[in-house]
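Thread: Modeling a multi-component assembly for a lab meeting

Hi all, long-time lurker, first post. My supervisor asked me to bring a structural picture of a complex we are working on to next week's group meeting, and I have zero experience with this. I have the sequence lines for every component (1131 residues in total). Could someone generate the structure of the whole assembly? Inputs are pasted exactly as I received them:
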Amino acid sequence: MATLDSKIPQGPVESKWSKHKADIKVVSPANKRKLDIIVIGTGLGGASAAASLGELGYNVKIFCISDSPRRAHSIAAQGGINAAKNYQNDNDSVYRLFYDTIKGGDYRAREANVYRLAEVSNNIIDQCVAQGVPFARDYGGLLDNRSFGGAQVSRTFYARGQTGQQLLLGAYAALNRQIAAGSVKSFPRHEILDIVLVDGKARGVIARDLVTGEIKRFGAHAVVMATGGYGNVFFLSTNAMNSNGSAAWRAFKKGAMFANPCFTQIHPTCIPVHGTQQSKLTLMSESLRNDGRIWVPKNKKDVELLRANLIKPSEIAEEDRDYYLERRYPAFGNLVPRDVASRAAKERCDAGFGVNETGLAVFLDFKTAIERLGADVIRARYGNLFQMYEKITDVNPYEEPMMIYPAVHYTMGGTWVDYNLMTTIPGLYAIGEANFSDHGANRLGASALMQGLADGYFVLPYTIGDYLSHEIQSPKVKTDTPEFDEAEKAIKDKIERLFAIKGKQSVDDIHKKLGHIMWEYVGMARTKESLEKAISEIKAVREEFWKDVRVTGTNNEFNQELEKALRVADFLELGELMAKDALNRNESCGGHFREEYQTPEGEALRDDENYSYVAVWEYEGEGKEPQLHKEPLKFEAIKVAQRNYKD
Amino acid sequence: MGNFLTSSSIGKKFVMSISGCFLLLFLIFHMVMNATAVISPEAYNVICAFLGANWYAVAGTAVLALGVLVHFLYALILTFQNWKARGGVKRYAVTKKEDSVSWSSKNMFVLGCIIVVGLIVHLYNFWYNMMFVELVGQHQNAMGFAPTDGASLIMYHFASIVWVIVYLVWFVAIWFHLTHGMWSMMQTVGWNNKIWLKRLKVIANVLSTLIMLGFAVTVIVYYLKSVGFDFFGLISW
Amino acid sequence: MNLTLKIWRQKDAKSKGGFETFKVEDVSPDTSFLEMLDILNNDLIHEGKEPIVFDHDCREGICGMCSLHINGFAHGPDTEITTCQLHMRKFKDGDTITIEPWRSSAFPVIKDLAVDRSAFDKILQAGGFVSVNTGGVPDANSIPIPKKDADESMDAAACIGCGACVATCKNGSAMLFVAARVSSLAKLPQGKVEGARRAKAMVAKMDELGFGSCTNTQACESQCPKLISISHIARLNREFLKAKFRD
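Re: Modeling a multi-component assembly
Sure thing. I ran the full set together rather than chain by chain. Output:
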């Protein structure tokens, strides 16, 4: 059994990273040329890591499932990226960003990692500006900021409503430069189906060329997973259609332990579900909560009239509106963290005040802001989001409030990593959303972009050198070894098995069933009963999948059904682990809300005595219960308290 | 500088732009010259005589011919390359014109071909009977006019309603070609932006209309004169 | 809604391909176009037939993956959208819809409606970057940039690399795509440093890969999901010619 060593450096939190950087080894340029690194994924984490490693002189191979690295789902992040620049003179600091992130994560994140994140946040902004990222600016020519949930300062840098896109294009450009220089080789439309271990170390991957179906082997001295989150286990989420948890799950089965799988972020401002034919949910940026006010009618009568389409929301008088976030959380108002806002919306809808035909929506209204600032200012700030909303719903948000409802958005849980971002498999790293480390039980808005780029630009390039400094004597990894043979055979067998089922249901049919179970029983509110139910139902659906799924076509071609089947097969196992983790955690914290554990006001009730730990799950083999390890969370720089967004 | 004018796409477009601009300037000159014929056939003939087959006129004609040739050859090359780039024979089954796209911009090559055919006819009608006659050392063309008597030649051709219609159609084609070509050439050399795009389009429309009106007036006035209309004595020659 | 779909099917890059006709029934006007294709594909799988391959990912109009030519328009008959943002309410019950892949010799069809757009990556690899390494850069606020320039740079940077400009251009020209990158960086002091090199290298790569040339029809900007203006093409022309005449 592997042991958990988080390798957190000694000393005060402010100096841990500097001290660690001084302590770890480096690799000489001549030796870097001899070392190969595989990076899986081309989002903010993967692209920035591959580019930085390429610049350093390593031989990098980067893989993505899309037709271009630029399509990774980081591109869809809208609102912004946090940094402790304090350009607004509002008393922001590295410590405050660190504090807000720990508090926002409901005291379930690792202090040392979060402090480092806050520390390097400023470098990210500098780096992106140097790359030509067109951040929003003031008339004086300096960078502009806005506010995000869970913060009382303006520290979010943004590029209209397309910040993720601009940051990713910056990282992608840096990556392109390295591809042109020959230090990085890019493999688009390739999916990683397994991690190959040699003598217990990560030594390569098995990939499927998505166009030809060819199964290929790639060897390297280290492998970096930058594969994002697993929110698609819910079928309906704000994730891209192809986002998946397969690489992380394959790694789990090879010994990389999985941390806090139940920590899922439900984003409060998404466009509500319109019907059963829906394929995905669209996020409306959190930045909208800077100027938008969230409300439902005070009176049930108005709710009924709205649902029957007899009145328009704009016709409801001011005094008949319940701005419930402002009512419940006067200090933060509409800018409470996401988990709080989502639960509050659910609470109102459960109480019967939900406003669209399904009763599952609340209003996000810009009336006050338009009156105060004028439609032009609002258009300049959120024009593209308003346009997107109107295209999807056919409702003009300048005239009528938007309708929103919470949806699965981000997974704070992920592959367990130590302070060096290395998983429990030596030589296998996990960065960005794929790892678990920085966001605890709830991620603050505009922090995902920060973490992806921090890991890729400023953390991994240092820490991976420490590991690789011991590998300079290792020759090029050969891929014609029994370990690769075995891994390839296992994949080919699995693919054959899938084709052989020839059942009646499509992969999507079964994925939808899984998604339904996950949303109903492992969603925004969980109970012991619901989770036990989920575990048994997921098992049943998994059996159904392996008996009755139909995968059309063959392996030797561009086969999107096969791609989906392989991913859903993994989701069917991962979903169960999420439910188990949620069942184990007998407390409510951040995005994990167990109905049994709440304060009289309906807030999350943590149990610091018994659950102030990272739940780390180890794979024990097919059909066996995974084993739980606990990494205790020590808070030295911050006093643990109940989160309070009221005053 | 290298050979970017022949090898790169923007270089080739630059040549199109510059040669087009040159041809446009010639058109303006030609139009002004023709307009003279409306006011006074004698004055027009003075210009014809001044140009005649003198070295500068011949040199000018040669440069002009080169301009036309370059503009047309480059158009041929670019059109073929563009057709190939679009997928050659693998084309869309359904295509529609986008509302904001002008018809002429999508049909510049077709318009150009019409213009060239018209040009050949026009050269046969006039240049062959004027400068060419002088060049081969004769003093009289097939119609029996002196080669510098342009005004009579105009009158001779545009007394026929067929020629009038052919020329007017030709002018319309040139008008379409110019409305797009004029702002397009500015765009190609990079002298354009969001604000100027609208202005350039207006300028292009106004200028091409003025030029083509100038030409059309000459044709129509000579035709009407030939059928005996004297413009209430306004045009008294 | 009930619809008839004429869809291009092509087994792989080498096959010839042709149209096949399908029917879909009971489609809600609120579904997106791609969800309508999901419904069709699910039906096909249930019938044991091979579903239609098409590229898609984020389904919110930003990744640039979806790429369908619908009833004669790149991304379909609506403006300022990608295919995934097209909704069925733009069609009428009983309509026949023709769906084709992007057509351009630089974007060969891989299968059915999916094309290979790696040419775009190659163009950007030729010079669509600022040559700075990670670390060692000045403070973000050390160079003020006029708001107007930053905004204009952002206008161009909004490009999602979907290829609708190439798909819709009668010349298969990638000028709008190339211009968006060149122009975005040309408006920033950070990008200006290697502006001349960038414009030359990217245009050379674009020509080499078999894209056509720009005849200023403005079809590209009319179909661009992000409404990127051809004024950026003017700037690219300017940057390129300036660079060439200086050489």
